[in-house]
Amino acid sequence: MQDKLTLMIPGPTPVPETVLKAMGRHPIGHRSADFQAIVKRTTEQLRWLHQTESTVLAMAGSGTSAMEAGIINVLSKGDTVLCGDNGKFGERWVKVAQAYGLQVQVIKAEWGQPLDPEAFRTALEADTGKAIKAVILTHSETSTGVINDLQTIAAHVKAHGTALTIADCVTSLGACNVPMDAWGLDVVGSGSQKGYMMPPGLGFVAMSDRAWEAYGRSDLPKFYLDLGKYRKSAAQDSNPFTPPVNLYFALEAALEMMQAEGLDNIFARHERHRRATQAAMKAMGLPLYASEGHGSPAITAVAPNGIDAESLRKEVKNRFDILLAGGQDHLKGKVFRIGHLGFVADRDVLTAVAAIEATLQALGLDSGSTGAGVAAAAVELAR
Amino acid sequence: MQDKLTLMIPGPTPVPETVLKAMGRHPIGHRSADFQAIVKRTTEQLRWLHQTESTVLAMAGSGTSAMEAGIINVLSKGDTVLCGDNGKFGERWVKVAQAYGLQVQVIKAEWGQPLDPEAFRTALEADTGKAIKAVILTHSETSTGVINDLQTIAAHVKAHGTALTIADCVTSLGACNVPMDAWGLDVVGSGSQKGYMMPPGLGFVAMSDRAWEAYGRSDLPKFYLDLGKYRKSAAQDSNPFTPPVNLYFALEAALEMMQAEGLDNIFARHERHRRATQAAMKAMGLPLYASEGHGSPAITAVAPNGIDAESLRKEVKNRFDILLAGGQDHLKGKVFRIGHLGFVADRDVLTAVAAIEATLQALGLDSGSTGAGVAAAAVELAR
Fold first, then answer.
1. Confidence check: pLDDT of A1 > 90
2. Cross-chain residue pair B241–A65, CB shorter than 8 Å
3. Residues of chain B contacting A26 with CB distance shorter than 8 Å
4. The pTM is what?
5. Contact predicate A299/A8, CB 8 Å
6. What is the mean pLDDT of residues B71-100?
7. In terms of CATH architecture, what is A263-382?
8. Please, are residues A194 and A296 in contact by the beta-carbon 8 Å criterion?
9. H-helix or E-strand spanning residue B345
10. Which CATH number fits domain B17-260: 3.40.50.2000, 3.40.640.10, 2.50.20.10, 3.30.365.10?
11. ipTM of the complex
């Protein structure tokens, strides 16, 4: 059956009809007053979403391009950075830093475990020579469904006095509270196909005043990712390079919908979906992959003991046209991931749980209590 | 009046309804078999468009991101490059090369004049030590409406034996013949909002085998723009980072339309529009900015002596909702530019000419022979 696909992956996430329709308009000139009005408005909307006074810059690119821009615009060759690594995206920022010749100290945690804020505090306090120029970490680690304690770690960075906090908020922004200014985050990177409820293709970077000071010293080579060019253009409600005009139409519409819902409601919805999904999986006897208390509001990773996660995922797709995400790298076949990020309603979570239960039953893999997952989810959704 | 805008700028160019509709579908998972099928198909279509056996890589980004990727993936720090500069985009590649610490030799021509192939031959023949690693130039210089003789210059580079040809084909690909393999082009960069008849947001880079050999030696730092990652993923019909899924839908539909029209017909159409536009401007007494015989098939720049080009452009927009492009940098107010690139029909060219004539008459700036432009265009369109 065509056109019945439901995305329950951590991106691309489902897109509202309103946003698709806005995106489907004929493009306009990107140097026109009409387009400048869109840049002006979306820039304000993005400030609201980031809870910041800083300018949020948008570029044609993925979340990785935004994070790379954030890193290479505030650092210089040979600089020491402290990277948190407890999953595929943590690993990625280590690789980006290394690709640019930075000295990388890594604070690791096992996949499925959160980063330990104390390890950051210790490393930062030990750095009396102030060699560490930045701490790079992922807020919601998409590969494992773990949320890291960005607020606490950012406070330790603040106490260090010199280092900047560069945060990958790709799957946390628009899912849970990320008050950039209140937490003192210096660089926040994100991507459009996540909490933004729109298709992929736009990356976002917000930088604090301290980050812009560091930009003035940065000597890493860049041109397309040179955020100074974006800032200069943004001051004139414009872009340095041809922006993805139709994705801007989508952005404006999506942020308008988000503003109508309100940040608190959006965060409460994601939190409710996290609770409902986790409760359902437990009721079905399927262990969560993220350690207790550290599950992301955007994504729940499940490690179904003794069941091939990839087969289960494929059956859910074949039978019910719901796309779940698989495990990445060494987790392939061991983990499946349920995205509950962005334009996801209570109904979607209930449906996904029901579909997983029905599939387990059809495969003879259920624990004999089919329906328990839906019942548990329903309790949490009703709270 | 809403929704009546006609784009006659060199990008974003008009987008067919078929392409907009394809783009407006709900996104699908970018790691799904359905999406892999789209990558596989569009990769073949892109080979057709580039007339190459090489793989053409696509990334979320602008034409500049594609060109920067082409440059930084085949060169190393301190390498000498020869850059052609006869307009804003020629200038831009000089800046990109300098940003990465390359030694840049510039061959300049006045804005409005083509690059002199002999100057390239002389410089390349003088380089007996084979210091020049690449020649970077723009095929169709969007800022001035000049087409450079890429074929001849590429042949001189070939004769050099070592240097690579890196060509900005952003406004030539899909407008005129750019047979990558036959001309021996090593790197070809382009962007979606031009001849591709789709919205901005996708950049394309094709690289020859020689370019990939140079990639193996390249030491310039990169991660998001590291084309090796794209090549590895492309071999599996995939992308290293989340691709702009909806723009891929548009790409598939647009390239299907282009294949139905056929390369020869597409090139003949652009050539007809170039002739018709040039003839019309001459008939109206408006001097062309590009020197005789070197006008681009994608864009005609006009320098209306004694008339403020910016006022004329704005009046055409206000009266007839046709968006022409202004002059860039020092040409602002002195030049306006008519884009006839991509999804442009004979009717659009005739309409633009008529609208310019009508506006000049309304402003009392006509030469007393209103209608002469349309008549001249009609002759060329009927040939």
1. no
2. yes
3. 3, 5, 7, 14-15, 20
4. 0.98
5. no
6. 98
7. Alpha-Beta Complex (3.90)
8. no
9. none
10. 3.40.640.10
11. 0.97
